[in-house]
């Protein structure tokens, strides 16, 4: 079911409604290339910070408003 939503713009719309173009940071599970690519397209970049979680290593992504 989830895969049927890929590429529909739902993620972009939700992100835009939630934070707009503001400075922001988030944590993404290491190896989740689909999520990392999505957030990179929205202006986020990995900043090198990591934290271990029960599900695996998480990596921080940040975005600075222009």
UniProtKB/TrEMBL annotation:
InterPro entries found in the cross-reference section: Acyl_CoA_acyltransferase, GNAT_dom
Pfam family, one: Acetyltransf_1
The N-acetyltransferase domain, residue ranges: 1-66
Protein name: N-acetyltransferase domain-containing protein
Annotated organism of origin: Nocardioides flavus
Phylogenetic placement of the source organism: Bacteria, Bacillati, Actinomycetota, Actinomycetes, Propionibacteriales
């Amino acid at each position: 079911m989830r895969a049927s939503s890929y590429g529909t713009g739902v993620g972009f719309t939700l992100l835009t409604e939630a934070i707009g173009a503001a400075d922001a940071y988030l944590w993404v599970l290491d190896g989740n290339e689909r999520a990392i690519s999505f957030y990179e397209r929205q202006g986020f970049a990995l900043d090198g910070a990591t934290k271990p979680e029960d599900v695996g290593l998480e990596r921080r992504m940040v975005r600075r408003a222009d």
